[in-house]
Amino acid sequence: MSAVGVTIRPARLEDVGAVVALERGVAEAPHWAEREYGAMVESSAGEGVRRCLLVAESGGELAGFAVGRAIGREEVSGELESVAVATGARRAGTGRALCEAVIAWSRGQGADAVELEVRSANHGAIALYERLGFVRVGMRKGYYREPADDAVLMRIDVRG
What we know:
This protein is an alpha+beta fold. The chain has four helices and seven strands; from the N terminus they run βααβββαβαββ.
């Protein structure tokens, strides 16, 4: 299922300002420096680590973004690091389409599985991840701050 009228594509440098603005408006999103997003667009983040920044665009406007990471060379592990959707694009399939795009990107990087962590209080996100096939595999007590919350660890097998 994809969001109607939404295009998912790799981010370009000119998207970074809008990505940062959206991210700053989503309390649950990790708040990274603008230069980190720029580095994701320009190149990999380092030896053995590859990252992607994907954006969802609707009517020429940023509807959301997602960050994926692939770690390792021979045994590759994927991670859905961040997903943020603009308020007006929520509950329309944008988040799901972004997650599916990161899963596909991870599979293309050779990952056998994709993992994520999510605030235990974020019931909507957990439900989305479960609909996508992620399963709960653990918890990190007191992982998040402001507000304090536990992290639910989730994983999906993406082998062929």
